[in-house]
Structures are given as C-alpha cells and as structure tokens.
Amino acid sequence: MKKRLVKIGEAAKMLGSTPQTLRKWEVSGDLIPFRKTKSGTRYYDPEELIGSKNFSSTYC
Question: Which of 26, 34, 44, 47 could form a disulfide with 11 if both were Cys (CB 3.0 to 4.6 A apart)?
Fold first, then answer.
C-alpha cells in the first residue's frame, strides 16, 4: 500500500506553522521530509507529523 504524503504547505498547516519554519527545521535536523525530489519538492508523512505537533507547539 502506498503512503499518503503531503507537500510542505499542507504539512505546515497540520502543524500550525509555516513552510519557512519547516525548511528551518530541516536545516537544523529537527524535521526531515519523508522524501525530497530532485527539484526540491518536500513531501512529509502525516503520521510522522502527528508526533511533531508537540515539537511545533514548543518551538513556534
């Protein structure tokens, strides 16, 4: 079965954050996309984001 992945904008909304914040978290190693295409499009696994909600409420 294929995983449902979301792009950075939808992931940011799920976390109550912004795409820019998710990019900063990627650079710092705090939140790594599930997949990143050659062109740079980031895809996140919603199931992994659920655990990140606590992280985002602490650091946003």
Answer: 44
**Please, what sign has the CA dihedral across residues 52, 32, 21, 46?**
negative
Residue carrying the six token digits 């650079």: 27
pTM over 0.85: no
27: Cα within 13 Å, side-chain hemisphere: 6
Instruction: Read off φ and ψ for residue 44, nearest 5 degrees.
Output: -120, 150
Neighbours of 42 (CB within 10 A): 21
Domains of the chain: 6-59 (1.10.1660.10)
